[in-house]
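In response to a reviewer's request, we include the raw inputs and outputs for one of the modeled complexes. The two entities were modeled together in a single run.
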Amino acid sequence: MSLRAEEVSWEAGGRLLVQGVSLSPEQGETIGLLGPNGSGKSSLLRILAGIRPASSGVVTLDGVELAALRRKSVARRVAVVEQHADTSVDLDVLDVIRLGRIPHRGAWSSPRPEDDAAVRAAVAHTRLEPHLHQSWHTLSGGERQRVQIARALAQQPTELLLDEPTNHLDIKHQLELLTLIVNTPVTSIVALHDLNLAAMYCDRLLVLREGRVAAAGAPAEVLTEELVHDVYRVRAAITPEGPDGRPAIRFLRAEGSSGTDTGCTRKAIYR
Amino acid sequence: MNGAGTAEEATSESRTGRRGRRPSAPPDAAADAQAESPAPRKAGRVTGASGTALLWSAGLVVLALSIAVAITIGPARLAVTDVWHVVAARIGGGESGLTAIREGIVWDLRLPRTLLAAVCGAGLGVCGAVLQSLLRNPLADPFVLGVSSGASTGAVTVVVLGFGGGALGLSGGAFLGSLVAFGLVLLLAHSAGGTTDRVLLSGVAAMQLFSALTSFIVFTSADAEQTRGVLFWLLGSLASVGWSEVAVCTAVLLVVLAVCLSRAAALDAFTFGAEAAAALGVPVQRVRLLLLVATSLLTAVLVSSTGAIGFVGLVLPHAARALVGSGHRRLLPTTALVGAVFLVWVDTAARTLIDPQELPVGVVTSLVGVPAFVLILHRTGRGRTERRGAGR
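The model returned the following structure tokens for the whole complex.
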């Protein structure tokens, strides 16, 4: 265990957005961060990355407090992939991936062989060879996320933090991206909205509700019909029919939307 | 499928070959793909360390030649060899073989003026490039933080209102004014949250405020003669500069360029925003403050000796990006060279076009620069839509 959060809280504008969350991932596992909009997933990831200081509690990296480390040392260990990274700068894929070497380089030194090697490995892992000299602005959403992951891997991190990386992607790209993340030999913490994807790909889940941990553990333990109703306020039928007996979630229509309310839909169909 | 343009066509074979194995193919599937993409880079862009070194050497040669040739142009006819003899005589001792008047024209008038044009072009270009990256806004220029309008208010206060009792002088007043304006912008931005947008908005607010103050003072207190002098300075002028300005501006340019280059990687990290930069290990607040102070100081020094020469800092960084891409280690020195050469020729045009009169150099930068800018926009814009069109 290297990156650890102990009872971290974060307060902004008089509101506690994250409250007493603890987290200690095992080496190499993928942790899914679940919870409705505004439940504190993004804030927690920022605290874990050291981009924001926790109001209380500590985040440690190998037992050393994040706040006591230089930003550069943290960035050599912890890489972040944002939900929606964009730029107006005209640069190509290789330029973006090379940004990942910034924490490893001195102010004046030019790229060393190990920098090139790290970039090459990241490119190979994300299979971006055909796109290296393509402009960032011509990439699709899925390709952009893959490039950002490659950039993060070029940082050679031990922990990878991803904030809803599958947002706005079609289902095929969502599956591809999560496969890529799971196959990456680093500890990953991924904020996700899709419960089925979380159940399919994550080793453990942490569910947040209003900044607090609502549940934590293996997908089968965490994802119950009660929890989904408590946290998301929706009804779901959950069966162990996912891959390897993992839970599969089927959402049910909200109460009151069946019966007479569907009349208009039916009319629309039969017209 | 969203690949695009030439890159896509060149490698479509390797892609289709691997598609079937997605999404579960292990990383080693990449081994059968080409190790390096054969796709061509952007046409006309200089790449690689040797290419850049060559570009810079060529740029320095062009700059030296431009300065030498620009000095020979003007009412008094001179040859490049005359310029060389004077410089050699002044630096190495001995006689130039020219009359005292002609030697004076080279050494006291045209040489400092041309050198300052080069320094000023380089400095404004570098400041523009840094601010555009730091504030993530392609429209940012060295004056976006109110430095130039502060300088003009300071200058007007001294010249028109007689503030400082003559001890301060126009450039002293301008320098003080720009520092006041910049301090105000920092204070405003800090109290508003310190984000990039706030810095920009505070800068724009300060710019409006000080421009209004300048106009107010000119309209209420200045006579016709003063108004003309102030107007000339407001549009930028390299007339009547001496060696002391050259020395000060060069020294500050070198220091600020070194500071910016030492933070080149951090500037690259700002590509995807301040948070992304922080995640890449950049101490965002510290770097931002350092670079804002450094560029504003350089701008203040330049503006107080030459007035606000517009356009250079806005456009030349874009031209330099078209040449070497957006990596700042290559971009900043390239921008400096391009800016220097550009302003040397623009100033030469300003002092000769309507001879014996002189145009404010800021007027010529825009007259020459806008068509050039449109050309760049057109070229890069077309390239982008073509690639995009093929992809989407």
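As requested, we also summarize the result in words. Residues 63-382 of chain B form a domain with the ABC transporter involved in vitamin B12 uptake, BtuC fold (CATH 1.10.3470.10). The first helix of chain B runs from residue 5 to 19.
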